């Protein structure tokens, strides 16, 4: 039974950054920004506009400690989706606590623009509901501080202009980033698909499998399995019945693979009649599933069969190999097994165990 759930925006972007060796840069940037923000409550303790009572000063110190803890998370490792959400909630509460503890309401009101930075992070990495939740906290703080400023100063023009500035940033930045990321992801999904079959192409296959690995290795006992499939007699089909029928056969094969494979599987067309499938599960040997793929191709009314090579490797631990290098190794091993099946006459399945990748000590 599968224990890997479909990915969300955080997992997709995390895998994208990891595949391009950008996670360390992002971790450093988020840690730096969060650490600087966490230091601000301590700096404001010496300001006449900052917290001026024992309780509010204690709140400021607590907010600083919470912010520092959130920053350390990014210094230690790339967080999971749940840890990132916890980071966002902690940061949002810390910002709210500090701003509401300010003795000068104008300083607190202007400080509500800080929510826009956190909202931008949420818009980039997480679902819209988290952006809305952060905006709701920002709105409550803005309303409270605007009321305090109006009561203390009586300057309605100052209050209105400040609220407009804060609202513009807290709406424009997070929701603008959210819309942009959603649009980019939609475009990438379209451009990363094989135009004939609708399956992944080679580039999106690697990106999606990296994401699959990131999800799977959070569980124990998981294996990454890869199958390389080459259609037998496909050239003969093209030569005798025409390329239009050949295209129909490829579309039918792709549909059969999608029907046989589990929802978590990543299926790609990587050549004229060559396909590759990756999946993560507790099973280390995908021969049984590969046999179902073989039977599905043989049952199609095109007179073609499939030579299939498979392999698998356990996930877990910190590997020496990067994810892309691991995928390359598994494809090479499966490819060797596939050619063994083809030399044996085709319409068969061969499995070659892959050597376990070395782990960092």
From TrEMBL:
Q: Name one GO biological process term.
A: cell adhesion involved in single-species biofilm formation
Q: Where is the GGDEF domain?
A: 222-354
**Annotated SMART domains:** GGDEF
**UniProt cross-references to InterPro entries, sorted A to Z:** Diguanylate_Cyclase, GGDEF_dom, Nucleotide_cyclase, Rev_trsase/Diguanyl_cyclase
Q: Which Pfam families match?
A: GGDEF
Provide the GO MF annotations for this entry. diguanylate cyclase activity
Which keywords annotate this record? Membrane, Transmembrane, Transmembrane helix
Transmembrane segments annotated in the record for this chain: 24-46, 58-78, 85-102, 108-125, 132-150, 156-181
Q: Cellular component terms, GO, for this chain's entry?
A: plasma membrane
Cross-referenced NCBIfam families: GGDEF
In Swiss-Prot or TrEMBL terms, this protein is called GGDEF domain-containing protein
Organism, as annotated = Mycobacterium vicinigordonae
């Amino acid at each position: 039974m599968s224990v890997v759930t479909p990915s969300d925006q955080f997992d997709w972007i995390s895998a994208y950054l990891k595949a391009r060796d950008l996670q360390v840069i992002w971790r450093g940037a988020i840690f730096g920004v969060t650490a600087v923000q966490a230091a601000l409550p301590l700096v404001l303790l010496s300001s006449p506009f900052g917290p001026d009572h024992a309780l509010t000063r204690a709140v400021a110190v607590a907010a600083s400690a919470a912010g520092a803890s959130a920053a350390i998370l990014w210094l230690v490792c790339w967080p999971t989706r749940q840890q990132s959400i916890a980071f966002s909630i902690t940061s949002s509460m810390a910002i709210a606590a500090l701003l509401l503890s300010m003795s000068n309401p104008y300083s607190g009101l202007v400080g509500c623009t800080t929510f826009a930075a956190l909202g931008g992070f949420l818009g980039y990495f997480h679902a819209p509901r988290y952006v809305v939740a952060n905006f709701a906290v920002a709105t409550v703080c803005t309303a409270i501080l605007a009321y305090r400023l109006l009561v203390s100063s009586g300057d309605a023009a100052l209050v209105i202009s400040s609220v407009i500035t804060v609202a513009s940033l807290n709406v424009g930045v997070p929701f603008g980033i959210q819309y942009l990321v959603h649009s980019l992801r939609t475009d990438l999904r379209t451009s990363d698909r094989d135009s004939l079959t609708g399956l992944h192409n080679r580039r999106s296959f690697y990106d999606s499998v990296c994401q699959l690995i990131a999800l799977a290795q959070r569980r124990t006992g998981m294996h990454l399995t890869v199958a390389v499939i080459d259609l037998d007699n496909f050239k003969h089909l093209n030569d005798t019945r025409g390329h239009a029928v050949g295209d129909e056969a490829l579309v039918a094969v792709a549909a059969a693979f999608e029907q046989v494979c589990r929802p978590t599987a990543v299926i790609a067309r990587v050549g004229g009649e060559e396909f590759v499938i990756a999946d993560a599960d507790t099973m280390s040997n995908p021969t049984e599933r590969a046999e179902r793929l073989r039977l599905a191709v043989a049952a199609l009314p095109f007179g073609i069969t499939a030579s299939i090579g498979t392999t698998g490797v356990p996930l877990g631990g910190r590997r020496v190999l990067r994810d892309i290098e691991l995928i390359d190794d598994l494809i090479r091993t499966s490819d060797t097994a596939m050619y063994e099946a083809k030399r044996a006459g085709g319409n068969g399945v061969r499995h070659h165990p892959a050597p376990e990748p070395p782990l960092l000590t």
